[in-house]
Amino acid sequence: MYMYAHFVFCWPEGATQVHVSHGTLAGPKMTLWTDIRIAGRFSGAVLADFGRTWVIAHLAKFAG
Fold first, then answer.
1. Which DSSP string corresponds to 6-22?
2. Number of C-alpha atoms within 13 angstroms, CB side, residue 35?
3. Engineering a disulfide at 21: which of 29, 39, 52, 58 sits with its beta carbon 3.0 to 4.6 angstroms away?
């Protein structure tokens, strides 16, 4: 699991999709999406890079 800007990314080992929630790692989470595709070798570094890139792109949709 990885958290960035209160988006929590859960990538089960062997899966090709990431579950995205809003919340914190240790606290409550609200599931937002369960089907966000991810590519690459399963690792914390790949998930962290994916999460940061995804959040920046997602939040850019709301920029004026």
1. TEEEE--TT-SEEEEEE
2. 0
3. 29
